[in-house]
Amino acid sequence: MEILAVFLVGLCCVLQSNGIEVEASENNGCQNFQPHTFMLQEKQSYRTSFHFQPPRNWLNDPNGPMWYKGVYHLFYQYNPYGALFGDFMIWAHSVSYDLINWIHLNHALCPTEPYDINSCWSGSATILPGKGPVILYTGIDANHCQVQNMAMPKNLSDPFLEEWIKFAQNPIMTPPDGVEGNNFRDPTTAWLSHDGKWSVIIGSWNNNQGMAILYRSEDFFNWTKYQDPLYSTERTGMWECPDFYPVSVNSTDGVDTSILNAGVKHVMKASFNSHDYYMIGTYVPEMEKYIPDNDFTGTGMDLRYDHGKFYASKTFFDSVKNRRILWGWVNESDSIEDDMDKGWSGLQSIPRHIWLDRGGKQLVQWPIEEINKLHGKKVSFLDKKIDSESIFEVQGITAAQVNS
What we know:
Elements: E1 2-12, E2 20-27, E3 30-35, E4 57-68, E5 71-79, E6 90-96, E7 102-109, E8 120-128, E9 132-140, E10 146-153, E11 164-166, E12 184-185, E13 191-192, E14 198-206, E15 209-217, E16 224-225, E17 231-233, E18 240-248, E19 264-272, E20 275-284, E21 289-292, E22 303-304, E23 311-318, E24 323-330, H1 336-342, E25 344-345, E26 347-348, E27 352-356, E28 363-367, E29 375-387, E30 402-403
Parallel strand pairs: 4-25
Antiparallel strand pairs: 1-29, 1-30, 2-3, 4-5, 5-6, 6-7, 8-9, 9-10, 10-11, 12-14, 13-14, 14-15, 15-16, 15-17, 18-19, 19-20, 20-21, 20-22, 23-24, 24-26, 24-27, 27-28
Pfam families: Glyco_hydro_32N (PF00251)
Protein name: Glycosyl hydrolase family 32 N-terminal domain-containing protein
InterPro entries: Fructan_Metab_Enzymes, Glyco_hydro_32, Glyco_hydro_32_AS, Glyco_hydro_32_N, Glyco_hydro_beta-prop_sf
């Protein structure tokens, strides 16, 4: 069989993250990244050049992405001691000016207190008007129970936000009656509601229902569980890493998470059964109810962000370019032995601009425009005939990776 092919091959640049390596310096019980020399790719097999990765070890959920004082921030679940998921998970922290080239900072949150001594699990960042960002995160406490905690920057004038202070009154939320201690995690970005109160949802599972438990607060410090979940269903498993945000019905622009008007619909996303599912619907703040246009069915008809390796995703509103950006964890399919041999496992997806399609039925995604920075020299081949099982050498470029 012969194939008539048209090749467009682009030489892509590698990430310019100033060549970071991990060094074992102790700080609050964690190893931290320290600037060092260029990391040679051959030191760690099969590392990517375009997707976000830490210098080494295990990575999973993206946490608390945001823009603050000219800098993009990405926190993420990380095991500082190995290439596998561990019993001592932390919030690692990296910053960027363009979402392409990243600077790896010292870790933001490490297990140090009774309320998070067995790991700092996933959560979100909310920027409070006039007060700056606040992190809400799940701690695994001394009894291995999942509780919700808060942390604030030590120095708001530091655009890198390199130091974080845990709230003295943590935990601020504990599993409510009827919810088991291992089914209460992953607080979302909070939003300011119609009555001036803050709202946040926590992923859970109770009475054979996956759900978004709703909490409300007047001051962001003292939280009260609302009488009913914002949404629940019997057609899913445990809800992990829920996300709840508005999308414009008339524009591809993103909107702030606290926007509530007739010009938006709301997306409810939950991670379960190894995939990320979402619904488009209407949020009724006066009733604190979410009414989906189409409920989860537990079938292949449910809407998904991605049909590949993509999980525990998180969006944020980029106020600089008026867009909502989606991050997702891309898990590895390698064996445990291979991951340990490589010295790393997991990466983040290419960040995606996300918006509502014209029909209002589903979301549209596209790689952020900054990805074009990775495109370099282009080599084209027109009407080139390639025989089956033959080898064709692309000349004129030198690169470990190309786009085709």
